[in-house]
Amino acid sequence: LQVPCAPSQPAAGSESRRFANKHSKKALKASLTLGILLGMFFVAWLPFFITNVTQAVCGCVPAGFFDVLTWLGYCNSTMNPIIYPLFMRDFKRAMGKYLPCCRRSGEPRPSAISLSMRNSNSGPHAATSLKNVL
């Protein structure tokens, strides 16, 4: 049984579907990014932790093999700054803004003063934010 729609309802319905579709694409992209990051973390660090427990129990793991697995874990930390910009537009913009090698030609270089003021709590709003905390 279908109920006829009023003429004003299809526009609102299509807009809500478009919003839901856009939201689901963002959620899918976030899930994909998280899945890749966690997958890389487990691939890099799980062998190390298993070997570490094995070494504690039986002491039969060669030192060279243990070092290789440790460096595999360290490589995971090296891969994160490569993976994040591939999937996150905001991260890519931030890297482009602060790293000279990633900056587009013609973009101004941020000054050290603006960076330090942005990262510090000393400023005109410091007292008001402290009042809000207390």
Written account of the structure:
This protein is mainly alpha-helical and 134 residues long. It is built from five helices and no strands. It has helices at residues 9-58, 63-87, 89-98, 112-119, 126-133. Helix 1 (9-58) runs antiparallel to helix 2. The chain starts with 8 loop residues before the first helix and ends with a helix. The mean pLDDT is 75.
Share of residues in strands: under 5%
- Binned, the helix content reads over 70%
Computed CA radius of gyration, to the nearest angstrom: 25 Å
Shape: flat
- Please provide the ordered H/E string of secondary-structure elements: HHHHH
Number of DSSP helical runs: 5
Would you tell me the overall average pLDDT?
A: 75
Largest sheet: none
Low-confidence stretches: none
What's the total number of strands? 0
Query: Between the first and last Cα atoms, what is the distance in angstroms?
Result: 59 Å
Helix/strand-derived class?
mainly alpha
